[in-house]
Amino acid sequence: MTKAGRQAKVSRLEGDHMDFNAWIAAVQKALPGFSLAGLPTEFTMLGFAIVLGLLQLLIAARVGNNQRGIAWNVGPRDQPSPPVSAVAGRLERAFRNFMETFPFFAVAILADHAMNRFGMLTLIGSQVYLIARVVYWPLYGFGVPVFRTLTWLVSMIGLLLVIAALFVSGA
After folding, report:
1. What is the reported pTM?
2. Directed axis angle between helix 41-68 and helix 120-141, to 10°?
3. Is residue 23 part of a domain?
4. How many domains are there within the chain?
5. Helix, strand and coil percent figures for the chain, each rounded to 5
6. Is 160 among the domain residues?
7. 85 — phi, psi (to 5°)?
8. What is the Rg, in whole angstroms, of the alpha carbon atoms belonging to the chain?
9. Tell me: the pLDDT tens digits for 3-62?
10. What are phi and psi of 78, to 5 degrees?
11. How many whole angstroms separate alpha carbon 31 and alpha carbon 129?
12. At a CB cut-off of 8 Å and minimum separation 6, what does 36 contact?
């Protein structure tokens, strides 16, 4: 890039005083806030996260239990679980991973509501968290490296935005 090109780029960012409100409006347009049954978007995302967790539980259990056999499934399970395929193991680990973050997400959404903190941070954070968790699940199941970890990181950013709303007034 030429010096003139760099200066023009900097001018657009600095000279025009990159409008934070315009950036927020662009994010709102990209993530407009999806809601069902008149619920706030944050509660809708919480509801979808609950459904996602149940789907992960049921599918991981079905795939794993199919491979372990009926005797193990109906037995007392006193012995270690028989080995399962790589995909079944990844689906179980993906569910456990979801369960490591979901309680924090749920409590943060409920606390934000109780403290009247729903705003841009919770609107954006709840949607980012859910979308990233939906994408993460098949990436883990299919064993996709690197991108799976980056997607987990995006979900954590969404979670941290929801948590940050507890400490930032008017956000």
Report:
1. 0.80
2. 20
3. no
4. 1
5. 75, 0, 25
6. yes
7. -65, 165
8. 21
9. 454 444 444 444 455 565 676 666 666 666 777 888 999 999 999 999 999 999 999 999
10. -75, -30
11. 12
12. 44, 47
- The one-letter amino acid at 122: T
Encode pLDDT of 136-162 as tens digits.
999 999 999 999 999 999 999 999 999
Give the C-alpha distances (Å, rounded to integers) separating 58 from 65, 88, 95.
10, 12, 10
| Length reported for the chain | 171
Look at residue 153 and tell me if it is in a domain: yes
Residue 23's pLDDT is what? 61
Residue 59 falls inside a structural domain: yes
Is pLDDT above 60 for 119? yes
Q: Look at the block and give the residue holding tokens 């609950």.
A: 50
Nearest to 132 by CA among 104, 150, 151, 147: 151
